[in-house]
Write a structure and sequence with these properties.
By secondary structure, this protein is an alpha+beta fold. 43% of the residues lie in helices and 18% in strands. It has two domains: 38 residues; 404 residues, no CATH class. It contains 14 helices and 16 strands. A hairpin with a 3-residue loop joins β12 and β13.
Length: 464
C-alpha cells in the first residue's frame, strides 16, 4: 500500500470515529440540557460574546446554584467541605466576606514553587516554568479521580487544599511532580504539605470561596493570609516534601500546552498582582479591587486575553514536547511519544481542513468553553489578573495601584508583555470541565512578584 493510500485509510477511519463521537455528544448534550434546563443558558455564545457574558454580573443568575448542587450531588463524603461551598459568578463579589468559609482544622495545604523561576524565565524557559506550576494541579486531580478540590495556579507554582483522608495521596503527588519537573524539565520544584492546624497556631487562617466563570468549572479563591504565610514557610525549607526517586512519574493525563502564544490585541498583555496590607474588611482594598475592575471594564472585551483562540491554531502545535514528556511512560522513548502525538494532531488538523463539518460540533464547543473556562483573574491572598489592554489603560491601572500603595492599602507588581500563554488540563475531551491556566508569555506573575514595589510585609488576614 502506498503512503497516499495509507493516509487515506487512516483519514477514513478517523472520520468515522469523529462522526460517531459527534453523534454521541449530541445525544448526551440533549439529555443534559433537558434535565438541567440548560437551554435557558446562553452556552453557545461565541468569541467576544462569550467573554462578555462570562464576566458580566448576573447574566445567568441560576447557573452558580446549579453548579453547587451538582458538585454536592457528586460528593457522598461528609468531609467534602469544598463541594458544598456556594458558588458565586460575579468576580466583583470576591471581597465579600460572606462567600468565604474557613477550612476545617484537620485539612492540609499542598504547595509548589519553581526555585529560581526568575532566572529560568530570563533564560527563555517561561513555558517550562508554567507547565511545572500547572503539573501539580493535574497530578492531584488525577490522583483523586477528578474529585472536586480547592486549588489555584500561580504561574511558577500552585496551591491546593484537601481533607485528611487524602493527605497521603497529596504527599505522593507532590513528591512525584517534583521528581518529574526535575527529570523532564530540568527545574527544581520546591514542594510542601502544611497542616491547617499549624497555620492557625501561628494566628493565620485559610478561607476559601468558589468562583465560577462559567457553568462548567469553578476556581477556588483563598483569603485569610494563611496561604501567603505557608508559601513563606515552604521557601524557608519547612514542611518540605522530598522529591521521589528518578523515573518516578505522576499521572499527568490531560495536561497539555499546544496553543501558540496569544498576541495582545490592544498593545499590552498586563500581568498584575495586588496584595492587601491591612485587613481587607476595612473597605479600602475592596474599593481598590472595584476600581481596577471598573477600569478594566472600560477596555474592549473586559481585558480577556484569549477572545479568539483559533487565530493562533497551527500545526505542528506548540508545546508538543511538554505534552510528550507529561504523558509518556517511564521507559517510553521521548521521540516515540512525540511521533505518536504528532501523528494524532496531524490527522485532526488535516481532517478539520478537508471536512470542517465533521469536527465542527466538538471543536466549536471546546473553543467556546475554553474562552469562558480560563482563570485569567483570581484571588489567593493576592489579586492576580492577566489582561489584554491598551498602554493607556495599563498606565491608569498602575496609577491607581500606586495611589493605593502610597496610602498603605496594598503592595503590587506589574509586568507588561506582548502576549499570553495557556496551559490546559482536560480530564476528558468529551467533558466540559476542562480548565485553562493563563499567564503572561515572558514572565507574567513570576516577574510581577519580582518587581513588587515594596518589601514583603504582613499580609492582611482577610474577611472576618
Amino acid at each position: 500500500m502506498s503512503i497516499v493510500e495509507s493516509l487515506r485509510a487512516e483519514l477514513a477511519c478517523f472520520l468515522k470515529m469523529e462522526k460517531a463521537g459527534a453523534e454521541n455528544h449530541e445525544m448526551r448534550v440533549s439529555r443534559v440540557c433537558s434535565s438541567l434546563q440548560l437551554d435557558k443558558i446562553p452556552l453557545t455564545v461565541r468569541q467576544v460574546g462569550a467573554s462578555r457574558w462570562a464576566m458580566s454580573s448576573g447574566a445567568v443568575p441560576a447557573f452558580a446554584t446549579e453548579l453547587t448542587e451538582r458538585s454536592s450531588e457528586k460528593s457522598v463524603d461528609p468531609a467534602d467541605f469544598y463541594a458544598r461551598i456556594p458558588v458565586f459568578d460575579s468576580f466583583a463579589q470576591l471581597t465579600d466576606p460572606a462567600l468565604y468559609r474557613p477550612l476545617p482544622e484537620d485539612w492540609v495545604i499542598g504547595l509548589s514553587d519553581v526555585v529560581a523561576s526568575t532566572e529560568a524565565i530570563r533564560a527563555g524557559k517561561y513555558k517550562s516554568v508554567n507547565v511545572a506550576g500547572a503539573a501539580l494541579i493535574a497530578a492531584v486531580s488525577n490522583a483523586l479521580s477528578h474529585r472536586d478540590f480547592a486549588s489555584t495556579f500561580g504561574g511558577d507554582g500552585a496551591a491546593f487544599a484537601v481533607p485528611p483522608q487524602y493527605a497521603t495521596i497529596a504527599r505522593a503527588a507532590l513528591a512525584e511532580t517534583a521528581a518529574w519537573v526535575r527529570d523532564e524539565l530540568g527545574l527544581t520544584l520546591r514542594v510542601a504539605l502544611i497542616p491547617m492546624a499549624s497555620i492557625r497556631a501561628e494566628g493565620w487562617d485559610v478561607q476559601v470561596a468558589r468562583y465560577a466563570p462559567s457553568p462548567h468549572v469553578s476556581y477556588a479563591m483563598f483569603a485569610g493570609g494563611g496561604l501567603a504565610w505557608a508559601v513563606g514557610k515552604m521557601k524557608a525549607g519547612l514542611y518540605a516534601v522530598l522529591p521521589a526517586p528518578p523515573r518516578t512519574r505522576p499521572d499527568l493525563t490531560g495536561l497539555s500546552c499546544r496553543w501558540q502564544e496569544f498576541p495582545a490585541r490592544h498593545g499590552v498583555m498586563l500581568s498584575l498582582i495586588a496584595v492587601p496590607v491591612r485587613a481587607w474588611s476595612e473597605g479600602a482594598f475592596p474599593k481598590l479591587v472595584c476600581d481596577i475592575l471598573r477600569l478594566v471594564g472600560q477596555g474592549a472585551e473586559d481585558g480577556h486575553p484569549i477572545i479568539n483562540p483559533m487565530r493562533v491554531s497551527t500545526w505542528p502545535p506548540a508545546g508538543l514536547d511538554f505534552e510528550a514528556r507529561a504523558t509518556r511512560t517511564a521507559h517510553q522513548p521521548l521521540v516515540l511519544r512525540k511521533l505518536e502525538l504528532g501523528l494524532q494532531s496531524f490527522l485532526s488538523w488535516v481532517l478539520s481542513r478537508l471536512c470542517p463539518s465533521c469536527t465542527r460540533i466538538q471543536s466549536d464547543r471546546y473553543i467556546d468553553e475554553m474562552v469562558v473556562n480560563t482563570d485569567f483573574r483570581k484571588y489567593d491572598d493576592a489579586l492576580r489578573m492577566t489582561i489584554d489592554c491598551t498602554p493607556a489603560l495599563a498606565n491608569q491601572v498602575e496609577a491607581r495601584l500606586l495611589e493605593a500603595e502610597h496610602a498603605g492599602v496594598a503592595r503590587f507588581g506589574l509586568h507588561r508583555q506582548d502576549a499570553a500563554i495557556l496551559t490546559c488540563f482536560t480530564p476528558s475531551p468529551l467533558s466540559s470541565n476542562h480548565v485553562h491556566f493563563i499567564d503572561g508569555a515572558t514572565g507574567g506573575y513570576a516577574t510581577a512578584v519580582a518587581r513588587m514595589k515594596s518589601p514583603v510585609a504582613k499580609v492582611a488576614k482577610g474577611p472576618k
